[in-house]
## 1
Amino acid sequence: MLKADPLTGYSLFIMVILALVGSFGWPFLAGLAGCFAWFAASRMFSSLQPLQRIQVLVMLGLGTLGLVFGQFKHTGSFWWLKALEGNQGLVSMLLSVSFLRLIAITDLAAKEKLPLGRAALWKTLLGVHAFGAVINFSAMIIMADRLAIKKGLTPLQALVITRGFTLAAHWSPFFASMGVVLMSAPGASLWKLMPVGLVLAALGLVIAGSLLLANPEAKNTDAYPMHWQALTLPFVLAVSVLAIHTLDESIPVLTLVSLLSILFTLVLLLVRYRYKAAQYLRQHIEITLPSMSGETLLFLSAGVLAAGLGSALQAAEFSLQLDYFGPWQAWLLLLVLVAISGLGVHPVITIATAGGLFSPWVEDPNLLALVFLMAWALGVSLSPLSGTHLAMQGRYGLSSYAFTRWNLGYVGVLLLVQLIALHFYVFLN
């Protein structure tokens, strides 16, 4: 049972509001938003898992060393301010999207008999992908909890859900992956990334489904009772983000996602629940937001790491001196990033680091951004320490390290597909 922590919850909520307002022409609010974010983070640190604490402390330590080194070389206060802001745009998006679970959860499948067989599992795979692309982690947990009620979650069911979910990292503007990538590859365009990411995700779904449902157990495995009307909200939200981004590309994508997530939630809460809307909203702020300690601290500390790396590179006058960054170089970078993720390092760390090193020297930021999106999708599928696999272990008793073994061949196939995709992208551009 989660405990209420109003002070932390409202600090995070104020940070979200300040970050949103600041992104519309009041950049001085970013520092203030950062203060609220770090205050909340200091209160949430004790609730982290041991491994999360190590990762956060390592990023904070390395980032601070880089900032101090830069200060000695007189790089100025710019990087310290960047560290204070600490990826607040990304954190605001994550927290804002979490509000959607208040209106996205329906009772349609709560008491319905679970369908059986390959066709139903295909629907589950596609459903968790589409639903999870907008409400993120919550979609995966909702479906897995429903399947685990009677007999527990089988490895096959867990793989259908996790693979369908993680493939959305290729394209969804509501995923943390897109936020991290747009910040780590400055100049990348959502309009160019999403079509390629959608194609990659579609190919990945076909491959994942074909591999998993060839299992003889599939015909006797329970699936989630997928109701396609439940996907109306994700569809409307995604279209809204793209439509507004088309009309005014000056509004950051992270801002659009955060703002629309909160507005949709407020409107639908009032329409559906009227007088109980305030109660549900308060519970989410006081209980759910403080429970998101892992994501919040991970992304805040990654912001410090990126700022420290930038400060140190500027102070050292480091130059990567890339003569050419084409599909083969992009794929080799992808291999390195995925391999590091397989060792347990979160993709946000590797992407933030690689972004600082490569983004100043790569001519096409969209090519670099595609590599980062691919690395995130495959990295979380391979890593035994990703939040996705740790949730499977903590809630359903499935070893997180077993997922690395189960997904090794699947990731290998996708790496070959992505090599071809990178060559096609370069050829067409």
Note: The longest helix spans residues 400-428.
## 2
Amino acid sequence: MADNTALKPVVLSSDLPVFAVLDGAQFDDLPSALFEGDFVHRPLYLDRGNGTADQLRTAPQLVWLDHDRKAHRRNEDQEDAVPVAPVLERLLDMVEQRPALVFWVCEAGGETLYRHLRGINKILLSVDAAMDRGQSYERNPLSYQDEPP
């Protein structure tokens, strides 16, 4: 079992903005749990309308630890950060002992980290690459065999 509470002093000691990425596969419905917990969060998988409900519920989520939806509702005109400790405490309570949490530090802020994490899985393919663009990327697109060697 994961001891997520052991990370609390490390996270709270950071002088830079800290964010959490949660593995949605460890929860029944992570987006709903985050919404109900008043966390500010964004999915790291892009939903273009072709994802199943299971894919959307289990997508990883980036969570801002220095923002709180309750605080934003009270101060809608302000973008002030809130103390990390109460948000972190609620997050650790929600996660419990699941191995579902990774912390990130990003001096440039949440939007920059979000763009970075969203771009990790993107690849560029040359337009003249010898491949069947209809093939699944689950296997080698250059292979004409059904089974891997």
Note: The mean pLDDT is 79.
## 3
Amino acid sequence: MELLRKQYDYVRRTREILFSYCEQMTDDAYISEVEQYGRGSIRGMHFHVAECYAYWIGEFGLGRTFNWHLETIMNVAAMRGIFAEADQLVCEFLDRYAGMTETRIEGQYSGDKYAATPLWLFTHAVTHEFHHKGQIAAMGRMKGYIPPDLDLIMTDGAAGN
């Protein structure tokens, strides 16, 4: 799981760039819907990403439940708090399943029985975040905020430092 911890550190680094970008927005721009995008807001998309960690890593993987509410998150600082909880979940999950990446975990998904491995659950949550990271950047651009480069390029020029 040490490799997955390192990978998650990269995820958190790029998330920080996204949070810094979102902090340049007004709170209204962050929470209001983006008409050109269909429906939803940047805040809503961010919350959806956190919910994925809460469900797949927390509920399915660890048997925990969460009571987060989108309406209580009125700015990026509050969203950072939600992701701090998600980070703790991921660390707990990686501790619990250390050396057991292919262990079968059974649970419910959409009312049906479902089985997944810790590696699948982790991979799903991380790739889900990266998918929506691009959408958040596109939504911000539609509101007039030019996004930074959100690829996994380290600012010091060396990956992993």
Note: Strands lie at 105-109, 112-116.
